[in-house]
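Hey, I'm writing a tutorial for new members on how sequence and structure tokens pair up, and I'd like a real worked example in the thread rather than a made-up one. If someone can provide the structure for the chain below, I'll link this post from the tutorial.
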Amino acid sequence: MKHLLSLFLATCTLSSLSAQETVTAALLYEAGLEYGGDELLTLQFTNGEEQVMLAGQGGYASIGGEFRLANVDYLALRATVGIKYNTTAADNANIAFTRIPVNIVPHFYFDEMIHVGVGITAHQRVRLNGDGFTPDVDFAGSISPRFEIGYGGCALTY
């Protein structure tokens, strides 16, 4: 009987705690341009010009959510999934480097506008489509740290 009473009291206490800490969720969408990374390939155009395709460059769009505990307004967890795409300037080929980035980044808010975050990014389904000019390559996914500093809706990421 003692054990049942202890279990009942513990359950009531946990229920009380979880009822007080409601989580708010907000829709989060991101878009941007990134540059850098290792050299994937160098394209030679018929006019003699070159273009270097880097592994880190490309445009991206993501969607996800920002989650906060009601009584801890200075912390948030952001989670997104998206598509990152990079192509070449060739008129006669569709050489593209694509991947699916998944980001999970806890954020600290100094005030309503200024925030920093440190988390992880995992790039999945990483693929180079050579369109017949270079071999298609499927790369292994990778997990890396992600750093963010932002003001309002704009942020710099690394």
